[in-house]
Design a protein that fits this description.
single chain; 196 residues; alpha+beta; Aminopeptidase; 7-stranded mixed sheet
Length: 196
């Protein structure tokens, strides 16, 4: 396997938007997201990262194909649905870095690349010297009929990395589930970790 790795910041991320959008659609189709994605929506959504000077992308390519990627952005620069739970809970959002997707095609998993994603984001966030906390969110699916029998959530991996679930810190996002055309609300729960 001959993999190459790239990093991009701010507006530079726009140069790989289409690759990132296609990867997001492919990976998020799987449980628990069950995302019926569209390229048009993805390209619009990703503009948040191009507009933020301190946003960051770390991506993995196998030849010409993006097979894994992760992003992060200062929480201040994120969309309102991500910022507002922290603001309402009294957090200083200027001290928090938000970790976006961490996605990898299934055939590339189990090789330590997930740890590289977290290492890259934590190092980047820490490099500014002003961010004290990293956070991300994950979808909450309870007794969902589409859950595979052999499904293993990422909780153990996140806990091993030092992240703690904050059950009281939630937001709602909307997207169409597989086979649907109308977006429906999904509860998202945040995880947090203090960084140096």
């Amino acid at each position: 396997m001959s993999l190459s790795f790239i990093t991009k910041q701010g507006s530079g991320i726009e140069s790989v938007f289409e690759d990132l959008a296609k990867l997001r659609i492919a990976v998020f189709r799987d449980y628990p997201y069950l995302y019926e994605g569209s390229l048009a929506y993805e390209m619009e959504y990703l503009k948040t990262y191009a507009f933020a000077e301190r946003s960051f992308l770390f991506a993995i390519y196998d030849g010409e194909k993006m097979v894994g990627a992760t992003t992060c952005i200062p929480l201040r620069d994120e969309t309102a649905d991500i910022r507002e739970p922290f603001e309402k809970a009294g957090f200083n959002i200027d001290n928090i870095f938000y970790f976006g997707e961490s996605i990898l095609l299934s055939s590339y998993r189990g090789q330590g690349l997930g740890h590289r994603f977290f290492d890259a984001r934590e190092e980047y966030a820490s490099s500014f010297g002003t961010f004290r906390t990293a956070c991300f969110c994950s979808v909450e699916r309870i007794n969902h009929p589409a859950q595979p029998v052999d499904y293993r959530p990422n909780d153990a991996f996140w806990i091993k990395r030092g992240y703690k679930e904050v059950p009281d810190l939630k937001t709602t996002m909307e997207w169409p589930d597989l086979g649907e055309t109308i977006s429906t609300p999904k509860t998202m729960i945040f995880w947090m970790k203090e960084i140096e």
